[in-house]
Fold these 2 entries.
Entry 1:
Amino acid sequence: MPPKTKSREPFSAWRSSFTLKALLKAVAKETGALRRTIRIMEVCGTHTMTLHRSGLKPLLKEIGVSLISGPGCPVCITPDSYHEAIIDLITKEKNFLAATFGDMTRVPTRKGALQTIVPTFGSAIKIIYSPEETLALARKNPDKQVIFFGAGFETTIPSIAVVLQKAYSENLKNFSVLAALWLIPPAIRTILQSGEVAIDGFLYPGHVSAIIGEEAYRFVAEEYRIPGAIAGFEPADILLGILSVARQIRENNPTVSNEYQRVVRPEGNPQAMRLMAEMLEPFDAYWRGLGLIPKSGLRIKPEWAEYDAIKRFNLKLKAEKTLRTGCRCGEVLKGLIGPTDCPLFGTSCDPEHPRGPCMVSYEGACLIEYKYSSGAKKK
Amino acid sequence: MNKVSLEMGSGGRLMQEFIKKNLLPKFRNPFLTQLHDAALLPKGYALTTDSYTVDPIFFPGGDIGTLCVNGTINDLVVSGARPEYLSLALIIEEGLEYNVLDRILLSIKKTAAKSQVQIVTGDTKVVPQGQADKIYINTAGLGCLVGKPQPQQIRPGDKLLVTGPVGEHGLAIMLSRNNFRMFSGIRSDCSPLLFLLPLWKKGALWMRDITRGGLATVLSELADKVHFPLLVEEEKIPFSRNLKGAVEILGIDPLYLACEGRALLVVREAGANKILNQLKKNPLSRQAAIIGEVQDRVGRKGEALLRAASGGLRLLEPLTSELLPRIC
């Protein structure tokens, strides 16, 4: 009989000690048959978080599954130049409201962080929880220019596209978007192409996959012969994903398995994809720490240029080849080193005094390691 | 140029840092440096103060009036003092309706009477519209010491006990602010902790009311004070069913949600069950539970650890960035 779920605790079956222990045992059986440690990259920062929060990371290590954090945190991979462009604007120009998600305001750059800089008179930073709030902000402040600094992957991009569309249909004249929008599959390809890090399998992000579907990862299985599984975000979801990857490795049958079928359809969400294609177009984008990745960013299409803050305010986004001194976020994002291998970790970089965005974002590998791991090196 | 961020007032590590770097060096004296919830003064007095800026001012299970009385009472109780007298300072925004003000004052009256504390002095200020948000309240509390916290006596084997389900106040505020109507039945736990006072004579070594930063932050701060690591079991921590459902859907870690009527206690192993049974007889702490113990085998000095349902261990860090400002 399946575990009973009390209706008020919708996910308790995915969190119960009984389920988790049974799944861990099943994973151990697979890795036992393989007789070696398998290295799985969890692409998504939310997976990293669940792995640590639920205490699974050390347990998995004991049974031969080593997890490597990937580039899946939009705050971490958005280049400093985006922040600096906004900072320049609101510290020098009057009557600008820059709206963004909370994590983004704490990212340190050469020009300070959005949260700690002092905007010039009449300008301000607003923290928002959903893209829709930025439209309300523009309607309420017709005498100010509202810029939505929107960062995100495929999960968030459709909701930003909706906002663009609404701004157009409402004919909002004081609204624009600084798009920091990134695509996951090209980043995975870049990591594989570089060949710098040995990966036996991938945990694909559940929410991103709900938009883009299963086919987007097919190249990993077919071209690179590397197994992968789409996984949800409850502890048991992740173990199901890992179990599937371990099985694919043992059977030497790499594929894209969907272990999050209660949310992810094979074809993804065609409606959301259509909307994205209508408003946005891919371009070769710089990722913080990863460098230039072909067709990995989305920018606002020329026909909607008046809503593109970059064009409207002539923002200069310099391509950065190097990171600020000492911060090894780039290698962390590629899975080359773990957070504790960075010399700044826990010494001069901690959640209150972050040196790089990986220590800022809730989905950042460094913050998560710092917050949840016993014995992580600290001051 | 650096500005004060909301995070500095969150009760997390940045606030600790501010206290240590900016406040202590300027005002250093033996009473302040104890950094207790209340200062333990000569002749058996304890003094505390707290300001209340909660938004919204009325929420399920309480209002800014119940909060400003119970919050200050609780700071005295966990410092080992029986609350006796309160001061009451009101900062009111021009334009606040009289009936709203009356409602708050009435609730202050009732809450104080229930705990037998008297409001003995006060102050009223009104500021122009827009310069405050409806009403802020400051209360100070004077109490008489009946017990003494002894954090330096804490040793392996001592039990960690919470007085009831945690996180409801923080969640109630969050839900009422965002108008999440889909979650019903979550009420603030705002209530006085007076029932803990007798325990100071029955083996309680240390107490702390679980407010901003939630249980995780309180445990982590305790770990900093004692010489041994702490270990709690996730499955033993009491949560109400309504809260569990809501935090799962919202993706919130309930260990960081504030309470306003719950405390963490450290008690000797020998008397732990007796204390627990006594607490369970009180309607305000019926769901009290022993959630873990002071360790000498698992973890390192200074660490507070949680054994998750999976059996794996996770570190509990103090709250870093602000979950939600103005919860109290």
Entry 2:
Amino acid sequence: MSTPTVAISAAELCVERRAARSAWRLWPRFSLVVAAILLAVSNLFQFWHLVLNAPQYPGGLRVTLYTHKLVGDVREVDGLNHYIGMMPLNDAASFERSIAMWAIGIFVVLGIMAGLLATRKAAWLALPIVVFPLAFAADLWFWLYRAGNNLDPTAAITIKAFTPAIVGRGVVGQFSTDAMFGLGFWIAIAAAIIALAGLVGRLRTVTDRGA
Amino acid sequence: MDHHPRNRSVNRRNLLGGIGAAATVPVGAAMLGGLGFNRASAADDLSDEANDIIKARELSPEDVTAALETYMPSGRMDDYLMFTSSGHAGQVYVIGVPSMRVYKTIAVFTPEPWQGYGFSEETKAVLAGGNINGKEITHGDTHHIALSETDGNYDGQFCFINEKTHGRIGVIGLHDFATRQIVKNPLLVSEHGGCFVTPNTEYILEADQYPTPLGVGEYAPISEYKEKYRGACCFWKFDREAGQIVPGDSFAIETPPYGHDLADAGKGASDGWAFWNSFNSEMAVGGNMDGNPPLEVGASQRDMDYLHVVNYRKAAELVAAGKTDKLKDFNFIPMQMAIDEGLLYLVPEPKSPHGVDVTPDGKHLVISGKLDPHVTIFSFEKMQAAIAKGGHETDEFGVPILPFEECLEAQVELGLGPLHTQFDNSGYAYTSLFLDSAVARWSPGKDGKWELIEKVPVHYNVGHIAAAHGDTVAPDGTYLVALNKWSVDRFPPVGPLLPQNLQLLDIREGKQMRPLADMPLGFGEPHYAQIIRTDLIDAWDTYPQEEDKVGWNAVTHDWHPQGTRVGDEKIEVNGTDVKVWMTVMRSRFTPDRIEVNQGDTVTIYLTNIESAKDATHGFVMGGQNISLSLEPGETETVTFVADTAGVYPYYCTEFCSALHIEMAGYFLVKPAS
């Protein structure tokens, strides 16, 4: 800001600077709201997918996981999995998927409240957004572990217990598998980072007046 | 679907140079491409191996280019699919062009175990549509393919096939390449002039070949041929939405007993009219054991027979207005009504012609002479002028005859035995010459010229020819297939019954016609074929499956009421009536054990619940004459009486999986006593 004339007083200048500073100081609250919105948006996109390649499936088989549903060649993969005695995909994490929409909806509302409520401690309401992608990944790993380590011993083909890779390449029989997190997960990660920053920022601005 | 332009990566100018290095290059390219080597650079990067192969196999430059035109690296799709009849094999074949590989047999009039056609209750019902007075007929003589058309061009939705021996038509759906309906013509004992479709597939044309008293089972002594024997030009109404011929809306026009040969529907300028040749205006009836000339001689005495010109649109209006009669429950227009209403005219045509083919613009009709070395070209416009003029002579039945000269546009001498004509996109016509064993390219008025351009020999005795979209309003002008009746010396000896020879010709503009490939066909005798662009066909990978629905009826093309999901399998016993709802998947039948008592009536509803492309399962059971082919998503029914006690394993006939052998079950029939 330039000071073209001497007419502007020191007091006026001080007020202006404080106003700018206090707007800037709103960023933690702003980012908590942004994080909440991002978490809502993430739900529109896939969180994880698994591609299975084998000679007789030239286009590969693909299973795509959203927070609340499993789509793609689920039946075909289940059909193949029965040979090694693996549980049907839809039996895994069925409780988590059934409540996902509600839970995320609540997290989003809490995140927005964290940003809007005047008390600084309200920022803790955004904690679920910070934790969500980590909890998702942990739960996914748990179910992958469970599926691969509880194979039906009477299955036609006996293979050693294994934990399918949550990310990266694996091999089962003639299939090579590629697993990767999807866009929704990365948006949720971004939401978590932004929420964490907002949370920390909000809690550390202890000297701020009037906020 | 891939639509590969030909010669994309091959330099043709080099190729035509001879068996030099340039010519050898692409052969290697093809070889390497097939093995999965670097295809992009193959034309620039070839070893001497290609040259060695050419020398060792004594290939000419023409051979090499022909091979390159037709070779298909694994996974490459053909530009076209050819649908051919199979003659008395009673089926339809699907063949790739230009590779000339057979992709499929479509069972129509004959039970066929690979497809399970005629073994399930669903397909038995289709075959039963062709029963004659309740009698099961398990053979057929298929002649003329007709692909469904929209605006005069193939639309890839349906395929119709006629059956000469019994006067029947089959309807094939092209989502699944399977037969959905057979209808029996109640008036005709045999037929030939079908199938030909009108430009929007409103009607499918069919006519008698050998006149009889109209109506199956009707009798009159042959001495009353002129009085009692008749022909009929029939128009089957097609309901595209339902994928079914509607007999109640179809109709027939009575004609003199001249014996109809081939037909064509008008299009463009001649839309609304239909044309049939005839071959026996002599009305010869044979009797060579009684001192009469044989039928073939008797029927070839006059110099002229009659082209039948039919105003079917006007006829359809009469039918719709309820002004027509019924014969054998079929809408019927008696000959006198056809004469009075101006529905039927005759035009003299040279002796015993075979094909009548309408030009792509619909303005001309090409009559193939058969016993006359010319093709005769009539002008539809001139015909209409002659009709308008009135005051015609009639034949002895009172049918008006339009003067030959007034309808004639031109005659072109092509050679011996002209049979059938097709067209290309640059204004040329192609006619098969049966006796010359050749295909003629000629100019049907292109730049005002009516003349023979060139002929190319084919091997041997060519019948029909089929060019890519060659009988539509918009021919493609790329390939033509000659359907040769004799192969004589073309293939290794396989005994006295020889394969047919389907020969692929290159007819692209700007160069001479040339043969590209021979295709032996040793399981039927194709008559007519049609060649459609592959990308026009919308073939399903599997039958439809939805979240909460499984089990498609491939005949009714709707959900099968007995479609069974996993977990819903059951066996219901009701006295001596046993019903089984079975699911089929890799690698099990559920249930895999069924126990009944001798004499029980058993019905099994089988649903293939697979969703993967190509995951077909078969179902066979010893002693019951059962062979099903269950495509992914399909439900079929078998019903039989367990009349013989014993233990009968059932199993999957398609090698479906690593545990295919284990995909089996036991059907146990406990003795009655």
